[in-house]
Amino acid sequence: MNTKTRFSGLFTASVLIFSITAASFIFASCENNKKSVNAKNSLSQIDQLESILKQETLSDEARYGVMNKITTVYLANQMYSDVILKLTDWVENNPKDKYNAYWLLMVAHAYMQSQANPMAEYYFERIIKNYPDLTVQGQSVHFLCLENLIKISQNSDSRIKYFNQLIGRFPSQVSITEMYIRLAREYEKLGEWNRAMKTYTMFLEQPDASRIQIPDIPDAYNYAKNLIDFNNSPKNWMFRSLKGLENAVRSAIYYYQPNVLDSYRTKVNFFAVSWKQDENASKVDFSMNNYMHGNRISCDKELIPGPTPNEAYLRTTGWSNMPVWYFYFREINFPADPSIHGTWEWAGIYIGDML
To answer: Which of 21, 63, 166, 223 is buried most, with the most CB atoms less than 10 Å from its CB?
Structure first.
């Protein structure tokens, strides 16, 4: 490329960039002008509404309509500080306004839109504690407060209170099944195991418990069922250490003791699956004698580490049908009972070569 051509291209590019920049500036200016015009129109509209609001002959319903329109205009223009100032002043100066719970609901909403959740939480709480419930546009203000409090609260004690209020006050407006599983999880977070187990049991007793789909709580039914089944079990198959469990299993295999081997299995949801199956796909209850009979079973010398430090596999061979079985050992995670928590169990079998 010669010098003239190169500089000609640069000049063309510069013109293009300038044109795009100018167009962008013009577009942005138009948008800004449009917003400015809208803001002026909105302020003018608010001034007119404020004038109407000062009329002493307005009925409660008419006053509500004017105030609601002012709030709507502010929110449409994302003027959240104006919403907060206007409505908090109004509530303070008009303590007998029967719609005050609703105005404070809008204050809380404005705080949420401003990413000020602690302040929003304060106002939602204030409404529930200090104002009778109010139905606006077919919706309960207290119900809306509780729904939002559950969304933004980070405190398990508070969330437990909100869930219980929803269950007690608005049972027809919520999924009781979902409320129970969420409530149980909050009790579990706090280590309140008796309440957690009771609430998980109530969840399992709901007719739709096995079918409910909760996006942020996958497999809720199996989690709750396994926990309750384990809690109600005799818990007499655990070993204090992985080494103790390993030695016991190896010994039962070496001395050909199927009944002893059976006694080492977990008594809750023991599984036997292929590597491609889910553990919940095959809960089994069989005697190891059916598979050891007439076979010479052997074990690898070393355990195979699992995907976490709390898991391990013992590879065994010589079984009927599929000759390779991996015994799956895992550490028990059950803080509800400190005497059990951290012990080890033989939880299942993976059949076939490891994928």
So the answer is: 166
Which helix (H) or strand (E) is 127 found in, with range? helix 117-130
User: Are 119 and 107 within 8 A, CB to CB?
Assistant: no
Report the alpha-carbon distance of residue 238 to residue 330 in Å, rounded.
10
The two three-digit tokens of residue 132, written as one number: 């009778």
pTM: 0.78
Task: Report the C-alpha gap between 178 and 216 in whole angstroms.
Answer: 11
121 vs 42: CA distance, rounded Å? 29
CA–CA distance, 200 with 227 (Å, rounded to integer): 8
Which amino acid type is present at position 296? R
First to last CA, the chain: 58
Q: What is the dihedral of CA 248, 249, 255, 260, to 10 degrees?
A: 80
Greatest alpha-carbon span in the chain: 99
Cβ 99 vs Cβ 72: under 8 Å: no
pLDDT in tens, 277-331: 877 666 667 788 888 888 899 999 999 999 999 999 999 999 987 899 999 999 9
For 320, phi and psi rounded to 5 degrees? -65, 155
Q: Please name the amino acid found at residue 240.
A: R
